[in-house]
Amino acid sequence: MRRLFPAFVQRRWLIAAARRALQAGRAASALEILRDELLVGDPRAESLRAMALPLVPTPPPPPPGGPGLGREGQGRGELFSLLAQMRAAKSAGADPASRAPAAAGPGKDSSAGGSPGPRPLRLRMSIDDVGTFLICAGPGTTVGHSRAGESDVPILADLLPRHARFLLEPPSFHAAGFWRVEPLGAARVRVDGVELPPAGCTLRSGAQIRLAEHSRLEFLASDPASSSALLDLGGSVEAAGARRVVLFAPGADGCVRLGSRSDCLVAVNLGTALVELSHDGELLRVRCESGLVPDEEQGGAPRAEVELPLRLSAARHLRLSMQSPSARPRWISFAPLEDA
């Protein structure tokens, strides 16, 4: 192994093997992998070790300070097993990443212990003088490490590929729907300082969610009539170029209001104008009584409502007609993630 790959490549594969073992519920195997001498002092290994230790009744001894595990050691054995899986998947013409979770059992999601459910449709929304938002349109959204490419809200932080899941409970006759958060697999999540059990908890507006040392989110649901909510990532943390994430519930109950009123989910100074967003899973409806003019229709009459596909193929820009003649027009843009 040492003749075939440089040390940094071996470390990368060992970290990946440990993370997969942890996601599959094999915390003891993950700890054995992390004992490899190549990972001594590696901060990624230390972070994974901290997540795995509470899950093992009798933890193994700490990693050696010098050469310890040989080629046949548990850590290298797990690594060789992972490489064999990838070679087999490649020879079969499949994506190796799609085969690795099979260890969790049929019908199981290795990181969540259950079906991941449909992924939300995502797009970017940009508003003049306000900034960019990541919109996740659907009843469920996952947060995880950006480099893994498996989460809906990708964050560059010390997280598992799918670290936490936000789920919308359906509305009742008496109240709008509400959101809950669940840790996935071996992930640790704290809400208002309390570590969550696997079942997670219901969220209230203003709840402080801690996913990792430098990943803290604030959950906001300022509109009591809406099932949608907002995640404020805070600090310098970003997800797909945005620092705020709209958990956009479907239907009329998920209407997102943009404006100056205190009950607007997205606070923006639009004077007396009010913009409302809603979707049915396919179409995004943007409504404003003062009028909207799509960029391609400049010079035309303002419309009270514009419909856009949620699966945008290119950016679309809407000019908001302000009610005050002296106020300058404002622009609202929607774009697919690959078209910032």
Rounded Rg: 23 Å
Number of strands: 20
- Specify the CATH architecture of the largest domain: Sandwich
Number of helices: 5
Largest beta-sheet details = 15 strands, mixed
In the CATH hierarchy, the third-tier topology of the largest domain is known as Tumour Suppressor Smad4
Helix share, percent = 10-25%
Your description of this structure?
The protein is 17% helix and 31% strand. It is of the alpha+beta class and 340 residues long. It has two domains: 7-104, no CATH class; 121-335, Tumour Suppressor Smad4, CATH 2.60.200. It has a 15-stranded mixed sheet that branches. It has a five-stranded mixed sheet with strand order 4-3-5-6-9, with no helix packed on it. Helix 1 runs antiparallel to helix 2 (27-34). It is elongated. The relative contact order is 0.10. Residues 66-75 and 93-114 have low confidence and may be disordered.
What descriptive keywords fit this protein?
340 residues, alpha+beta, Tumour Suppressor Smad4, 2 domains, 15-stranded mixed beta sheet, 17% helix
How do you describe this structure in short?
This protein is an alpha+beta fold. It contains 5 helices and 20 strands.
Secondary-structure topology with pairs:
Elements: H1 7-23, H2 27-34, H3 43-52, H4 74-91, H5 96-99, E1 121-127, E2 131-137, E3 140-145, E4 153-155, E5 164-169, E6 178-183, E7 190-191, E8 194-195, E9 201-202, E10 207-212, E11 215-220, E12 229-232, E13 244-248, E14 256-259, E15 266-267, E16 274-279, E17 283-294, E18 303-309, E19 316-320, E20 330-335
Parallel strand pairs: 2-13, 3-4, 14-15
Antiparallel strand pairs: 1-2, 1-20, 3-5, 5-6, 6-9, 7-8, 7-10, 10-11, 11-12, 12-13, 14-16, 16-17, 17-18, 17-19, 19-20
